[in-house]
């Protein structure tokens, strides 16, 4: 398994593509620039099988329909943010002077556990704090956790937006993400990758 990081949109939100030797892939958080993202996936000859969302803030959702419509694949999201995709107030785009919406998700995640899509296998962790329905996806085979805006390199996700909770995000990180192997690579929603060990040892918020 290999992965590629693609910063998208004005907030440089990280979209990730996890792919195997057959170029089958999973797309995480396609946040913006739908046409360019579709072109990139086509150029790389990837074959998307699903879109997995860490959460539904506006900067993470903008290119969902471009990818979904091109490859006719399902979108997965946590049940607590199911309504956010179609509501600019909930996804906070209206707060920033925009009206960003996409079509409803196809698959709703209601509990933690195993998620298998084709040859891809994930452990899903509900990691609220940045938003109520934040999910982190751990792929043991690739030694990565796609953490969205929960855990960053030497930082944590903001908790001042509606639905955010500082104590909750700390608990999510310490009780769930920090249980993963120390060498697990953390792929955050913004910025550079890090590791669980590095954040345990030097994250000033934890």
UniProtKB/TrEMBL annotation:
Q: Gene3D superfamilies annotated for this entry?
A: Ribonuclease Z/Hydroxyacylglutathione hydrolase-like
| UniProt key word Translocase | no
Task: Write the record's keywords in alphabetical order, separated by commas.
Answer: Hydrolase, Metal-binding, Zinc
Q: Please list the cofactors this protein needs.
A: Zn(2+)
Q: Which residues form the Metallo-beta-lactamase domain?
A: 12-190
Entry-linked Pfam families: Lactamase_B
Q: Which domain of life is it from?
A: Bacteria
Q: Where is the signal peptide?
A: none
| PANTHER family in the record | HYDROXYACYLGLUTATHIONE HYDROLASE GLOC (PTHR46233:SF3)
Q: What is this protein called?
A: MBL fold metallo-hydrolase
Species: Lederbergia graminis
């Amino acid at each position: 398994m290999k992965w590629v990081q693609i910063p998208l949109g004005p907030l440089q939100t990280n979209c990730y593509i996890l792919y195997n030797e057959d170029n089958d892939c999973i797309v995480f958080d396609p946040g913006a620039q739908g046409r360019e993202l579709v072109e990139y996936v086509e150029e790389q000859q990837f074959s998307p099988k699903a879109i997995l969302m860490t959460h539904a803030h506006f900067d993470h959702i903008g290119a969902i329909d471009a990818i979904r419509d091109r490859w006719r694949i399902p979108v997965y999201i946590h049940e607590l943010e199911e309504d956010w995709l179609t509501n600019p107030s909930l996804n906070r785009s209206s707060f920033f002077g925009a009206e960003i919406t996409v079509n409803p998700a196809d698959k709703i995640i209601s509990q933690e556990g195993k998620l298998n899509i084709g040859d891809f296998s994930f452990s899903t962790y509900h990691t609220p704090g940045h938003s109520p329905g934040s999910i982190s996806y751990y792929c043991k085979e690739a030694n990565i956790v796609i953490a969205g805006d929960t855990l960053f390199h030497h930082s944590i996700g903001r908790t001042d937006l509606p639905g955010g909770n500082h104590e909750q995000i700390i608990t999510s990180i310490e009780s769930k993400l920090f249980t993963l192997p120390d060498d697990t690579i953390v792929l955050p929603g913004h910025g550079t990758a890090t590791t669980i060990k590095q954040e345990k040892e030097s994250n000033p918020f934890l």
